Amino acid sequence: MSVKEPPVVLEEPAPERRRLADSQPATTVDRLKDNLYYLRGRGALEISGVYLAIVIGFVVTSLVNPAGFAFLNSNNLSGVLSQNIPVLAILAIGAGVLMIAGEFDLSIGATIGLCGVVFIRTANSAGWPVAFAATVAVGIAVAVINGLIVVSTKIPSFIATLGMSFFWTGVSIYVNGNTPATFFPGVRTDTMVNLMAGNYGYFRSQLVWLVVVGIAAWFLLHRHRAGNKVFAVGGNAAAAAAVSIKPKAVRLQAFAFLGVMVGIASSLYVARTSGMQPGTTESYTLLAIAAAVVGGCSLTGGRGSVTGMVVGGALILTIENGLVLGNAPGFYVQLFLGVAIVIAAVFNKFMEGKAT
């Protein structure tokens, strides 16, 4: 009688449980590669390469012909670039975050005018520290009012904020009149000037403000759950709502963030110019949106980076500066800006197609 052998039991190894932390880069090189891939996915790496190439071209031209193209002159670097680029870049950060959330604000220029008037009139009566706080508060209030109109009525933000831009311009004229708002003697103190428009040779203090604001915005948008919610709402609001994210609240927060950026930018603007004429800052609206688009922000929301927004603003004003130094006709700037927006929009659409 044969003895039956026991059946062979094949033991399968237990599946290895993976954690989210296991996919994180471990070395410095891996983290650098991860950041580069991250930037490339949002258009910032490509536009940074274009900007670097343009700057190198301008530097070489300036070295070859310093008299005819004074790009490296300290007056140009400090007096033009490091004063103008930070203001536009800060506005682009605000406009870009709102665009990532899927909304637009076409009242940025009008809000700058109103905030500038508030800063000057408050500084004349209570000093510049109180004026700075009041200016940021007014910027937030204006932006939140715009946001409430958009989210409560479901009117497209393009139309709602276009109408509100005329309203806020009217408010600034009502508050200040048709004459420019100016500081009283002694109000524009050395401390205020050094902090907001100080000249330090090859750069101005506005550049320091941009660095601080840019780093804070980068961590908020790319390393905080608040930024994740902004990307989620802009990418797919219905899917975001399905995971307990409140799209209306996130959009209002994005509007409020824009208000903070406008308040800071307008404070830096009037600290440098010493005055504000209501209705003269409308061009900043399209410049800020153009900088965000050129920097990789999607026109339909859900895509963008703080790095791209800053580089987009720097690219526009650097090329404008180069055209001025090269004695190009004034309409070349508008021509470049129009072409750049269209090309950036086409490129963003191409990148969105590759992502899907």
Automatic annotation (TrEMBL):
Keyword terms, alphabetized: Cell membrane, Membrane, Transmembrane, Transmembrane helix
TM ranges: 50-72, 84-101, 106-124, 130-151, 202-221, 254-271, 283-299, 331-351
Compartments where found: Cell membrane
Major place of residence: membrane
Any GO CC annotation of this UniProt entry: plasma membrane
Gene Ontology MF terms: transmembrane transporter activity
Membrane topology, record value: Multi-pass membrane protein
Keyword Membrane carried by entry: yes
InterPro entries documented for this protein: ABC_transp_permease
Superkingdom of this protein's organism: Bacteria
CDD domains with a match to the protein in the record: TM_PBP1_transp_AraH_like
Pfam families in the cross-refs: BPD_transp_2
Keyword Cell membrane among UniProt keywords: yes
Protein name: Ribose/xylose/arabinose/galactoside ABC-type transport system permease subunit
Organism: Kribbella antiqua
